[in-house]
Model the fold of this input.
Amino acid sequence: MKKLFLVANWKEHKSSLEVHQFMISFLGNEFLNHAVSNTEKKIIICPPAIFLSQIHTLIGEYNLQIKLDLGAQNISQFDQGAHTGEESARQLSEFVKYAIVGHSERRKEFFETDEILKNKVHTAIASHINPIFCVQGKDTYVPEEVTIVAFEPLDAIGSGTPDTPSHANEVAKFFKEEKNVHYVLYGGSVTSKNVLTYTSQEYIDGVLVGGASLDPLEFSRIIQNA
Ligand code: PGA
Done:
């Protein structure tokens, strides 16, 4: 059975109360346990960093049948020190096993360069955090240590017009065969209706979901349908 990564990227959304309501609804969802038990589905929620501790505590209170991990949406490129506003890999590693690195929104809005992203990957791995490295196409630079890549074509993000499953599969094949990447996820306008068209592709190992992951029922359906 193929291992599938189902990653929620909440971006800059939700209040503390909304996070609580999401988690209660999501974790209490009977068909979620049913959809995930006896499968190789790995669920990873990447909330804004300020909610990591809250969700970590909440998950600990549930006797979960499912594999649910947390991920960071970003990580400092530095180990520690005078870097106002940043969270280091060592700090994040108390709560997360994964970190999204190189999302196109961070590249564009926060001017993250290949050099910065390489440092981020390095510091993440040194603290045993697995980077989920976002690429926008075949020519995106991927640091050597990366094992999980998320292919997210720019015009598919938040647009309602996802890439075709066959093209996403072709790109996934390229990263596995040419770049030694172990797992390739697809991201960009994934919903419960189209998720299977991606996860059923030979070279695609999961999805990175933005907008559709904000609703507990829709995200549960994505997990179920994947
Ligand atoms: P979307 O975002 O699912 O809302 O298109 C995906 C992403 O940016 O990771």
In short: The chain is about 35% helix and 20% strand. Strands lie at 4-9, 41-46, 68-72, 98-101, 130-135, 148-151, 183-187, 206-209. Residues 76 and 83 are 9 Å apart (CA to CA). The first helix runs from residue 16 to 27.
